[in-house]
């Protein structure tokens, strides 16, 4: 067992043996290193002013991703490289991204600029990108960086200039050496820093995790910290014991097992997007709207489930698909239908010492149609007011089975059982036959009014989404309206059993 965390900073390995279990990377950079180029803005992972790049060794190469330093715990960086805005200029002058920002006047007050530069730096390092990337790609990479004074036109122009050639900087030139060090840091040891009363731990195996969590069932499990980080920065909760899941071997697996896909608990949104979109494009469209690229690089599918939020975006979709949750403890493993995992607001069917290990997501079968819609005030980086997911099984032109789940309408992600029952035998194109199902929403849900939406709005929106899903199902297979509102041409029958 190792009593320290180790990471690469400015070309050298840093070893930390003393730090608080919830000390953020932002605080470490600004208060310990005095590297103050990285800014504190919202302190909740929204504005992007604190963006840094984190390098990992994957498939024989070093990959850099933008992350929010304000809600990432410094212990989570074990075995990685941390790159900040101070680090990227070489001996020959500014980095191409920095120089382009100067040339195109991409900064005014400058507060958000370091985070914007680091998001573009991570995109710059992406060897698989187009040269230059399409405007939509640049916009998506910048969606997690808010600028209130400059306007995005000069920033996008700077991005197009900087990204007009393949990556070539001191990071690409030293990638082989960096990769070797990262491989060395990825040892097989468990990490435990602190005492039994206050610690940061990062076990290396599922068995070590289960044993540690059995000894400390009061510890807080952390995967990406995109939720737990806000407990610290906004709610000021006293979290004394942190068990980080990010080093557990195999817990990030993404595996196609024929009729289903297994998503491990620590698989990030970014890593899981393609596998989930392969089940249905709507899932990929929704996942790409969860937070920003920074959030999706850190946040995990398992965390979105385990935190039990009634407004999480993935649980309604996974419930509609009939997903099964894998729960593990030192005593036993068990499988639970995801819809049964959520008991009440803030309560899940999880015993002391038991943790989410993964989720089995069935693929669509012949005759099935899936739809999912995220409704929020902003398109990007916003929490859902209503999240609806629909799975219809069709035979002879009528619905023989319906699985419908919503987020935002109850204290948990919840199926619309009464609505489902009234859709059996209904032709999806017959609006008159929907009336009983529309009325049944009041039996299934009694939503609350809050800052995101009123109870009335939520119920009416849920009804409208059901109608939208049914109309699209009836209108397939020649066209289908995606969640982003675009018409997408489809091959005949491609939507059924895809």
Could you characterize the architecture of this molecule?
With 498 residues, the chain is an alpha+beta fold. Among the domains are: 96-168, DNA polymerase, domain 1 (Orthogonal Bundle); 368-489, Enolase-like, domain 1, CATH 3.30.390.50. It is 31% helix and 22% strand. It has 19 helices and 22 strands. It has a 5-stranded mixed sheet with strand order 2-1-5-3-4. The protein is globular, with a radius of gyration of 23 Å.
SSE inventory with pairings:
Elements lengths: L4 E5 L2 E5 L8 H8 L18 E8 L2 E8 L12 E3 L12 H8 L9 H12 L10 H8 L9 H11 L7 H4 L1 H11 L5 E4 L4 E4 L3 H10 L4 E3 L5 H6 L7 E4 L9 E3 L3 E5 L4 H11 L1 H7 L5 H6 L2 H6 L7 H7 L3 E5 L4 E5 H4 E3 L2 E2 L6 E8 L5 E8 L10 E10 L2 E10 L6 E2 L1 H5 L13 H5 L1 H4 L10 H21 L3 E3 L5 E3 L9
Parallel strand pairs: 1-5, 7-9, 8-9
Antiparallel strand pairs: 1-2, 3-4, 3-5, 6-7, 10-11, 11-16, 12-13, 12-16, 14-15, 17-18, 18-19, 19-20, 21-22
